Fold this sequence. Notes:
Elements: E1 2-4, E2 11-13, E3 20-25, E4 28-34, E5 36-41, E6 44-47, E7 53-58, E8 62-68, E9 72-80, E10 86-94, E11 100-111, E12 118-121, E13 127-130, H1 132-135, E14 153-158, E15 166-170, E16 176-182, E17 189-196, E18 201-208, E19 218-220, E20 224-230, H2 234-245, H3 262-266, E21 269-272, H4 277-281, H5 283-297, E22 301-305, H6 324-328, H7 331-344, E23 348-354, E24 357-359, H8 363-367, E25 393-395, H9 401-416, E26 422-426, H10 450-466, E27 471-475, E28 487-489, H11 501-504, E29 509-511, H12 514-519, E30 524-526, H13 536-548, E31 554-556, H14 560-565, H15 567-582, H16 584-589, E32 591-594, E33 602-610, E34 618-626, E35 628-634, E36 640-646, E37 652-656, E38 659-663, E39 667-672
Helix pairs in contact: 9-10, 13-15
Amino acid sequence: MITFEKGQIPLLFDDKNGYLNGIEYNGKTISLCSKLWRVETNAGAFEIKDMTSFRTQAYSDMLKLFWENEKALVAVTLRAGDDGKIYWNINVDLYGGICVNKVIFPIFEGLRFESDNYLLVGYQSGTLLKNPVDSLFSKNKQVPFWMGRGKGAYENDYPAGLSYQYTSFYSPSDFGYYFATEDENANIKTFSWAYNEEICGIDFSIINYPENMGKTSNYCMPYEFVLKLFVGDWQDATKVYRSWAIKQKWCKEKLSEKYLSEKLVKTDLWRVNHTNGKLGTRTEEYFKTSLMLRDYLECNIALHWYGWNLNHEHDWDTPDYFNDEIRKIGWPEKLKEWNKRFSDEGIIKIPYTNARLWERTTKSWEDFNITAAAIKVSSGEISNEPWTPQQHLVTICPTCAVWQNKVVDMCREYVLDEGFDGVYLDQVASFNAMLCFDESHPHPIGGGSWWNDSYHTMMRNVKALIGKDRIMTTESCCESYIDVFDLFLVLDTCFQHTAFNAVTHSGDSVAVPLFAMIYGDYALSYGSICCFPDNLDRFEFNYIRNILWGMIPSIEAGELSELENQKDFLDVIKRGTDFFKANKEDIIYGRLLEIPKYSCDTYDITWQGTSEVNPPEVYEFTQSVPKVCAVIWLDAQNNKKLYAYNYSDKKSVIEIDGKKYEIDAKNFFVENL
């Protein structure tokens, strides 16, 4: 047995072949049988069992493992770091003209816990899965394409499909695994979790994609993988990640050090009509209801506007949002007049656009010869998007000048010429990076950091065009884009009825505020689906919790009939906006520090959702939630504060660390700690 004991976590390797057989932690040995790596090449795949020799080299704080045969030399380096971290790296050299396609490394097989356990996934803002083997992986259900892929497994890509480069699998009564890559350059990679049926556990691995895939005989991983074991929960893992994340190039300035436009800072409520694009096409009603909201709430409103081009469906005719039919009725001129009316009333508005897709049925597809700029799969075929089939949407490679220029021109026409206050560029920080194999494009074939780099170039060009006083935002919250966007539309914090629950139907998936806890003092967020047609309890729970988690208050749509007849909803919104206005400086420039452990009475909320089957099935589940939502906040001057809200219509008492706090019905509570 070979033992690497230089870190705080001794690793046990088989001395004959180099398999990882176990880890020692807290006085016990955790048994594993991990093959560590797999290399896929143009001449087939190989792993440890295919190698003919194995040797090691030990140093004071490092261990090197070498495997070799007539086709390859694979070297893995382990380095002891601070605070119990162990850093891993791999180098692959192939002989005889064999070339690398993928390197799966590291591979940890047979992870399991006997007691309750949780899997933290960096999908969107953050998702926590309870007992993931039982609730997801062993069910062998297909994951919807829009949230990753897999069946009996879950895979998603970084950047953007996943917002962060870490995950954690833990048991609160035992210990936890912290897995991360520390890659400031945001190279394309895949995180993979798969069902291990033999032991009813999980296998975890990372799929690495070399630059010039299939054409290079060497791969040296351009970042390090981190392993750390810990005692705690998802918040403890998140604190470990934050300590690394805020030192990266996307966090050069805190919000308190950045220039934030007046339009952004003055906004007290975002109105998003994501689920009701038709309302956005009824401009008179959209205008009237915006004034009603502004006056009733006594706050500044910003519109995240779908349907501004009279098309309520996402991405039809994109990027030609003013098609010939729209131009014939003179809508561009009328829209400019409407924008002035909104502005005269002090209402900020940004239009929906997409920065990834081109519909191949548009006239501009042929005019610009966009086939040449489309993402190509390894066979050379165009990668067609899996959204609405009738739309014929295609992802355009962000390295291509035609797309870089088109997005900038689109913003010039639809933002500057029409008088908007900024622009929303959909999917940049949401949908996964893609490999591209078109050798005519100005990027390495396959992997690398080119996807992230190209979008940075595009966003900087857009910002230079629209100016620092206009708002630039995108969907979701991938960390690597914090330095180029003003704020992020985070939708999934209200998706108790979708996301992983669309697969599990169980309520075993809950949203967790990773973005706010990691980057709350570096980036702003808004959005989420708080809809008037929803149940009032669900609406209030989500809307208020989002604000306490650090999001700018946000609601969905609000038709005229709803605003006239649902005063209870408006009163909830007003309570939230009033609290936000009173604490705006601390919420914008401070951050969510932690969700404390506290005790209070609970109440039941029933969630409803639609499953991802054909035909769709409606399902529901009931959860008990605390009558009080409480968080610990770090304000702009680094003072700790307790923020809380009582959902009950009676006074409620919570107890934190032995101290009791009494909170009035339907009221916020703030106290310095």
